[in-house]
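S1.2 Input.
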Amino acid sequence: MSLRVTALRTALETALGEPVAVQSTTAGVRLSAPAPDPADPVWACVLTVLGQADVWGSSDTAERPEIWAQLVDR
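S1.3 Output.
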């Protein structure tokens, strides 16, 4: 795992207070975790961390929304 992936994973886990999943993709590496409650003040930290990714977003395909961040191989 690259230093950039490790740093983003650590920062996201610290902001969320829970583990973050890491998956290899055809474009790079994707980190994902359950999204915090919309009213949770942790969002400010989470958004700052997500801003370090090349691409980030959220999805709601399961019972609980998920946030994700992608680091693109260069």
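S1.4 Remarks. The mean pLDDT is 93.
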